Amino acid sequence: MSQRGYAAVYRRSIEDPNGFWGEAAEDLYWERRWDKVFDDANKPFYRWFSGGVLNTCFNALDLHVEQGRAEQLALIFDSPVTQTVRRFTYQQLRDEVARLGGALTAQGVEKGDRVIIYMPMVPEAVMAMLACARIGAIHSVVFGGFAANELATRIDDAKPRAVLSASCGIEGTRIIEYKPLLDAAIDMASHKPEKCLILQRPQAEAMLVARRDVDWLEAVAAAPPAECVPLAATDPLYILYTSGTTGQPKGVVRDHGGHAVALKWTMKNIYNVDAGDVYWAASDVGWVVGHSYIVYAPLLKGCTTMVYEGKPVGTPDAGAFWRVIAQHGVQTLFTAPTAFRAIKREDPTGSYLAKYDLSRFKTLFLAGERCDSDTLNWAQQRLKVPVIDHWWQTETAWAIAANCLGIEYLPVKPGSPTKPAPGYDVRILDGMGNMQPAGEMGDITVKLPLPPGTLVTLWNNDERFKSSYLDAYPGYYLTGDAGYLDEDGYVWIMSRIDDVINVAGHRLSTGAMEEVLASHPDVAECAVVGAADAMKGQIPVGFVVLKAGVERPRAEIINELIQFVREKIGPVAAFKQATIVNRLPKTRSGKILRGTMQKIADGVAYKAPATIDDPAILDEITESLHELGYPKGA
Ligand code: COA
Ligand code: AMP
Questions:
Q1: Would you say the CB of residue 418 lies under 6 angstroms from ligand 1?
Q2: Per the structure, how many domains does the chain have?
Q3: pTM, two decimal places
């Protein structure tokens, strides 16, 4: 095996992190070099590149303009739902971002201020993130499919000085007005942002609130361009909220220096992508995949990135992805397996592929949820390119395990995201903190320190950072996933150890849904579990016990509960199934047996725990699930 082989690269990353990441950092422009690559002065809050000064936006845009890529395309916006294609060269994108940065500055936004971005998939969403990075404001993008209530929670936690939003988004054929959701969220929140910049889209113009709302285009037209502000490598770049075990989301904090170094490094080493390549992450800027692989990594690398406002199916058909790949010369596509399941369902033979020239297409990367072998094989057979499953999470910003194509293409084992990525010392621990032998399931952890680019803490909540990730096994980061390493060192992700579920590649908390159901006046207690779904991976199913004396029609209550979750969490929760039961199965100490309920829903063999209070309740649960059509395919 060559010196550049996976084993050698991986070993070096673990044994000599200073040398390894120090070298990777040479690929960026630093205003001031770092004092230390790895800084463990304030354990367990490890930092990377302390003392270094840089600007992420400069490295993502200005540097390329200066180094000869001014006329190269930086971003292509393809929106089948509005029949639009817009293209921006690096120079044009840099100038747009500089002006938007100037507009934010003119509205009083300063270094360190938070800015919430609540936007559909339009190029202005990318500009918004980069403009914040340019002036040192900390952005927090909230996914458009979340309801006003979720947005309000994030406004109260991040306390933004400004919000950047748009009048509407387009979901297939439906126009979703964003502005009423934003107005409602600001009404609900205790913290009031001073200014909202609103991008008016012609599909639905929004009413602007006097003195608070500013027309985006007017603000940009009037603003002088902003220069890149020098920032400490350890300054926060963004906060991204993600589901935890409660309704209160966790604000993952990312820094400038480590993030830029790691993400740029991943482009060649994991994705085997070079500057000038067209790279498409078919996700949304509201998710971590969008942050890392629509915005930061491809632009840091000097690629052309795609912003796609459409779906894999229905916009207009199951050939949508192939059309985009062919039309724009996409070499690498990154999406969630659910997108491929959706395509496969509509076009099982892949007949649409024949209509397009995919000769430039090189690789498909999948992540966000477990990739079933059927989907992987289907994609590989139809596309005839490597299909790479890789595993990561909002907290890490980049892959924890992958087949690192730019280092060495290892044999694929369908169902496994291959081996730990350089920088991640993955260990499987049992509940007592002992290392599990190969093949034995346990909690998947990463021996500290985590590599650069991963979360540095939770916003305003160092304690929750420690209790959520570090306290379970001192010296290790708890990923929240359970699984094992096989005898070849391949990682197998089997399940979550908390109540996070994965619906169409979207990470959701059943705990948050339970909080919403419990707030209904007729509900005494409830449980939500994620049942296996052939298309979306998992689908939430609610079980509710009504308060004594509630006599209203059950169907009416169930409809209200479904509406409740849609209104409080958002359509993205895809909460469409609930059933009313007399009691919930519990242990004698009162713990709800969600795991057992999930197994019943999935039609998986289960053994009722010895501590179960009353095994007969499981029969009622089984019957209720049958009525809802579970287990699917039974
Ligand atoms: N703004 C407003 N609403 C949104 C939204 C947004 N940005 N994104 C999704 N929604 C809505 C959808 O319209 C849908 O509403 P509905 O219940 O009224 O139909 C609901 O939220 C659920 O959305 P989703 O789970 O995405 O289901 P879908 O049926 O619309 O699409 C897929 C299913 C598989 C086609 C789609 O999820 C997909 O393309 N996923 C793969 C790519 C991806 O996004 N991965 C995420 C991380 S990599
Ligand atoms: P998110 O933070 O939304 O990216 O979700 C992260 C979670 O999604 C992980 O902790 C896993 O549970 C799951 N996940 C992501 N990628 C994969 C994968 N390739 N295989 C299995 N599970 C995955």
A1: no
A2: 2
A3: 0.95
